[in-house]
Amino acid sequence: MVFQLDDIDIAILESLVKDGRKSFRQISRETKFSTPTVKLRYERLVNMGVIKSVSPIFDMKKLKTVSNFDTAKVKSENHRRQEIGRNISIKIPCDYCKGKIHEKPSVLKFANMQRFFCCTSCRTLYREKYKRRIENIILASK
Fold first, then answer.
1. pLDDT digits (tens, 9 = 90+) for 66-100
2. How confident is the model over 2-38, as pLDDT tens digits?
3. Where are the CATH 2.30.170 domain residues in the chain?
4. CATH class of 7-48
5. pTM tops 0.85
Protein backbone atom coordinates (compact mmCIF):
# COMPACT_ATOMS: atom_id res chain seq x y z
CA MET A 1 0.00 0.00 0.00
CA VAL A 2 1.30 3.44 -0.92
CA PHE A 3 0.51 6.25 1.49
CA GLN A 4 0.83 9.87 0.37
CA LEU A 5 2.12 12.30 3.01
CA ASP A 6 0.12 15.52 3.18
CA ASP A 7 1.16 19.07 4.14
CA ILE A 8 0.64 18.39 7.86
CA ASP A 9 2.90 15.33 7.87
CA ILE A 10 5.58 17.13 5.87
CA ALA A 11 5.45 20.19 8.15
CA ILE A 12 5.87 17.97 11.23
CA LEU A 13 8.82 16.14 9.66
CA GLU A 14 10.49 19.41 8.65
CA SER A 15 10.06 20.74 12.18
CA LEU A 16 11.58 17.58 13.68
CA VAL A 17 14.54 17.71 11.28
CA LYS A 18 15.42 21.15 12.68
CA ASP A 19 15.22 19.90 16.27
CA GLY A 20 13.96 16.45 17.21
CA ARG A 21 13.64 17.44 20.89
CA LYS A 22 10.68 19.76 20.32
CA SER A 23 7.49 19.18 22.23
CA PHE A 24 4.21 18.65 20.40
CA ARG A 25 3.21 22.14 21.54
CA GLN A 26 6.34 23.69 20.05
CA ILE A 27 5.77 21.86 16.76
CA SER A 28 2.15 22.98 16.87
CA ARG A 29 3.12 26.64 17.24
CA GLU A 30 5.65 26.36 14.44
CA THR A 31 3.41 24.52 11.97
CA LYS A 32 0.14 26.30 12.90
CA PHE A 33 -1.67 22.98 13.45
CA SER A 34 -3.32 22.07 16.77
CA THR A 35 -1.32 20.16 19.38
CA PRO A 36 -3.68 17.13 19.31
CA THR A 37 -3.34 17.00 15.50
CA VAL A 38 0.46 17.12 15.73
CA LYS A 39 0.49 14.37 18.38
CA LEU A 40 -1.87 12.16 16.39
CA ARG A 41 0.08 12.62 13.16
CA TYR A 42 3.42 12.05 14.92
CA GLU A 43 2.17 8.78 16.41
CA ARG A 44 0.85 7.72 13.01
CA LEU A 45 4.23 8.46 11.40
CA VAL A 46 5.94 6.38 14.10
CA ASN A 47 3.47 3.49 13.68
CA MET A 48 3.92 3.56 9.89
CA GLY A 49 7.69 3.36 10.39
CA VAL A 50 8.45 6.74 8.81
CA ILE A 51 9.94 7.93 12.12
CA LYS A 52 12.13 5.14 13.47
CA SER A 53 13.73 7.03 16.34
CA VAL A 54 14.61 10.44 17.64
CA SER A 55 18.36 10.29 18.18
CA PRO A 56 20.84 12.83 19.50
CA ILE A 57 23.38 14.41 17.19
CA PHE A 58 26.52 15.27 19.10
CA ASP A 59 28.59 18.37 18.46
CA MET A 60 32.01 16.75 18.70
CA LYS A 61 33.69 20.17 19.01
CA LYS A 62 32.02 20.56 22.41
CA LEU A 63 33.19 17.18 23.67
CA LYS A 64 36.67 17.11 25.10
CA THR A 65 38.49 14.05 26.43
CA VAL A 66 39.66 14.76 29.96
CA SER A 67 42.10 11.88 30.22
CA ASN A 68 43.30 9.14 27.92
CA PHE A 69 42.38 5.60 28.82
CA ASP A 70 43.54 2.32 27.37
CA THR A 71 40.59 0.56 25.73
CA ALA A 72 42.61 -2.68 25.62
CA LYS A 73 42.56 -2.77 29.41
CA VAL A 74 38.79 -2.40 29.54
CA LYS A 75 37.19 -5.82 29.83
CA SER A 76 33.51 -5.37 28.99
CA GLU A 77 31.57 -3.07 26.67
CA ASN A 78 29.45 -1.85 29.58
CA HIS A 79 32.54 -1.03 31.63
CA ARG A 80 34.04 0.78 28.61
CA ARG A 81 30.91 2.94 28.28
CA GLN A 82 31.10 3.87 31.95
CA GLU A 83 34.78 4.72 31.56
CA ILE A 84 34.11 6.90 28.50
CA GLY A 85 31.35 8.72 30.36
CA ARG A 86 33.72 9.58 33.19
CA ASN A 87 36.44 10.81 30.85
CA ILE A 88 34.53 13.29 28.72
CA SER A 89 33.59 16.82 29.61
CA ILE A 90 31.53 19.31 27.66
CA LYS A 91 32.70 22.79 26.73
CA ILE A 92 29.71 25.11 27.15
CA PRO A 93 30.10 28.78 26.23
CA CYS A 94 28.24 31.44 28.20
CA ASP A 95 24.84 32.07 26.56
CA TYR A 96 25.32 35.82 26.97
CA CYS A 97 28.97 36.79 26.45
CA LYS A 98 30.05 33.51 24.73
CA GLY A 99 33.03 33.37 27.10
CA LYS A 100 34.33 30.29 28.89
CA ILE A 101 32.39 28.93 31.83
CA HIS A 102 34.79 28.05 34.62
CA GLU A 103 33.79 25.46 37.20
CA LYS A 104 30.06 25.66 38.04
CA PRO A 105 27.86 27.70 35.65
CA SER A 106 25.15 30.11 36.72
CA VAL A 107 21.91 28.60 35.39
CA LEU A 108 18.68 30.28 34.32
CA LYS A 109 15.72 27.86 34.19
CA PHE A 110 12.38 28.73 32.60
CA ALA A 111 9.64 26.57 31.11
CA ASN A 112 11.49 23.42 29.99
CA MET A 113 14.65 25.31 29.05
CA GLN A 114 18.00 26.04 30.69
CA ARG A 115 20.58 28.64 29.82
CA PHE A 116 24.16 28.57 31.15
CA PHE A 117 26.27 31.60 32.08
CA CYS A 118 29.80 32.27 33.28
CA CYS A 119 28.59 34.60 36.06
CA THR A 120 25.46 36.01 37.67
CA SER A 121 25.97 39.32 35.84
CA CYS A 122 25.66 37.63 32.44
CA ARG A 123 22.58 35.76 33.67
CA THR A 124 20.96 39.02 34.82
CA LEU A 125 21.83 40.85 31.59
CA TYR A 126 20.47 37.95 29.51
CA ARG A 127 17.25 37.92 31.54
CA GLU A 128 16.80 41.67 31.00
CA LYS A 129 17.63 41.53 27.28
CA TYR A 130 15.25 38.64 26.54
CA LYS A 131 12.60 39.41 29.18
CA ARG A 132 9.64 39.45 26.75
CA ARG A 133 10.76 36.32 24.93
CA ILE A 134 11.21 34.44 28.21
CA GLU A 135 7.77 35.55 29.43
CA ASN A 136 6.16 34.42 26.16
CA ILE A 137 7.86 31.02 26.37
CA ILE A 138 6.69 30.60 29.97
CA LEU A 139 3.11 31.57 29.05
CA ALA A 140 3.10 29.26 26.03
CA SER A 141 4.32 26.32 28.10
CA LYS A 142 1.41 26.53 30.55
1. 444 444 444 455 555 555 555 556 678 899 999 98
2. 578 889 999 999 999 888 888 999 999 999 999 999 9
3. 92-142
4. mainly alpha
5. no
List Cβ<8 Å contacts ≥24 apart for 120-125: 122/94, 122/95, 122/96, 122/97, 123/96, 125/96
Amino acid letter at 111?
A: A
DSSP track, 29-85:
HHHTS-HHHHHHHHHHHHHHTS---------TTTEEESS---TTT--SHHHHHHHHH
Which CATH number fits the domain 92-142, given the four candidates 2.30.170, 1.10.287, 2.60.120, 1.20.120?
2.30.170
In this predicted structure, what is the pLDDT of residue 2?
Answer: 57
Asked if residues 78 and 44 have their Cβ atoms less than 8 Å apart, the reply is no
Residue 135 phi, psi (nearest 5): -60, -40
- Nearest-angstrom CA–CA distance, 136 and 113: 13
